[in-house]
From TrEMBL:
The lineage of its organism: Bacteria, Pseudomonadati, Bacteroidota, Cytophagia, Cytophagales. This is DUF4374 domain-containing protein. Keywords: Signal. It comes from the Bacteria. PROSITE patterns: PROKAR_LIPOPROTEIN.
Length: 439
């Protein structure tokens, strides 16, 4: 039965590839024209065992855009919201018009289960079109994002724990540590797996002999032409002599995996000599096609602070483009928790610096390579964006949830053209909880 299912999925992958051929993205990601009449969904993460860990599940609640912009309106997602399927923090995405919420449950008995919800206001989220479980192919904790292709496709990625080839004390001649990577496409319209591929992704022989390997894949993005996916990586190094994880090591340049789209075949690796951190992000998008047609990507765990890197339209890193957020913001040790492109090469970054967990918001100009901390937002010491997921882009504005752990906060609306900061609806919190997105 399993063999028949696999064969059917492989056939489906080929059919899905054929059906998607021609669904190119000939223009850069279009500017969002704004939607006067749409639902705004806020999400909150419940505490598990430690305040702010988000391991107790995820709640959602939807209001009108007028209510989202009104500071006199109070939203209590933890008291009045709807619990989406996930043992821990759900990884949520939303349709461009806010009418549909997409979720893949994270870990547990239902880990890997994909569900679509119709957004009907308040706590009324109705599962639609059944669902599909991708755990057999991408595990119970897949990382995934929605492509900017008109709400047609989601891409889930995973890589198994790297295993050694003849590492001591097994004997023999050591060659590498590698896991098996999965890249899987979800058809949002038909609610099915439209294709998947599995393969090992080797580094250079020299890098692998030193114990370097890909530990995690995340945050895929579709290029301007719609023929390549660029997938972020989180790198790891093993001590080959002891077969243990190396905690401190000299990092390689930032690496991304490039695969053909829609076939998901032919994985290759590109390397930046500007960034030396990972580019996997955490719970949100980490790479965007901007108005100029290039892809911009943030780094994490970079020894010289987070950078914004540029991948050109030949799907290669542009090492002439140097954008250090440490230098632009005038601080040390910037770490990008999450960020979101708006339009006209303007984006907003949620970040920390100086080795603390306190979050800040900055506007970045990708063309000018400048970054400015957004004033008008209360920067509480307990404001932590490390699990942040959802930004709602509406025309020139982006909506974000700003709540310190266990404390009330607000939705803030930031205008990328005028730099106006609007204080929106009040977000009622509970001890140990925090809000993690606006969709």
């Amino acid at each position: 039965m399993k063999k028949l299912l696999l064969n059917g999925l492989l056939i489906g992958a080929m059919l899905g590839s054929a059906a998607l051929t021609g669904c190119s993205n000939d223009d850069p990601m279009p500017d969002n024209p704004g939607n006067a009449d749409r639902w705004v969904t806020v999400s909150g993460a419940l505490m598990g065992s430690t305040p702010g860990d988000g391991n107790g599940g995820t709640m959602v609640y939807a209001v009108s855009k007028d209510d989202a912009r009104n500071p006199e309106v109070s939203i209590d997602v933890f008291e009045n919201g709807y619990g989406v399927r996930s043992n821990r923090t759900a990884r949520l995405q939303a349709s461009e018009d806010g009418s549909t919420l997409f979720n893949i449950a994270y870990t547990g008995d239902n880990g890997g289960e994909f569900t679509k919800y119709a957004v009907n206001g308040g706590r009324n989220f109705n599962p639609i079109d059944g669902g599909v479980n991708i755990s057999q192919y991408a595990g119970t904790s897949p990382r995934w994002v929605k492509l900017f292709d008109g709400d047609r496709t989601g891409i889930a990625v995973n890589v198994t724990l790297p295993v050694p080839n003849n590492a001591p004390p097994a004997g023999g001649t050591f060659a590498y540590y590698r896991g098996v990577a999965t890249v899987l496409a979800l058809d949002f319209q038909e609610t099915l797996i439209s294709g998947y591929r599995q393969y090992e992704i080797p580094l250079t022989a020299e890098e692998e002999l030193q114990g370097h390997t890909i530990f995690r894949l995340d945050a895929p993005v579709l290029n301007k032409l719609g023929n390549k996916l660029i997938i972020g990586t989180w790198m790891r190094k093993y001590d080959v002599a002891s077969n243990t994880v190396a905690n401190n090591f000299e990092r390689l340049g930032t690496k991304s995996v490039v695969v053909d789209y829609p076939s998901l075949e032919n994985p290759t690796i590109i390397t930046s000599s500007v960034g030396h951190g990972d580019c996997s992000g955490y719970r949100s998008f980490n790479s965007f096609v901007a108005s100029d047609g290039n892809i911009y990507q943030a780094t994490q765990r970079d020894p010289k602070g987070s950078h914004i890197l540029r991948i050109n339209q030949n799907n290669e890193y542009d090492n002439s483009y140097i954008f250090s957020l440490d230098a632009a913001l005038g601080v040390k040790g910037v770490y990008v928790d999450a960020w979101r492109y708006v339009n006209d090469n303007i984006a907003y970054v949620l970040y920390t610096h100086g080795g603390t967990d306190q979050g800040y918001v900055a506007q970045v100009d990708l063309s000018a390579r400048t970054a400015t901390k957004v004033e008008g937002i209360p920067y509480d010491a307990d404001l932590d964006f490390s699990q942040y997921q959802g930004f709602m882009v509406d025309g020139d504005e982006v909506y974000i949830a700003v709540t310190p752990t266990g404390k009330n906060g607000n939705i803030y609306i930031l205008n990328s053209k005028t730099n106006e900061v609007i204080k929106g609806a009040t977000l009622i919190n509970k001890p140990g909880n925090h809000y993690i997105g606006v969709f």
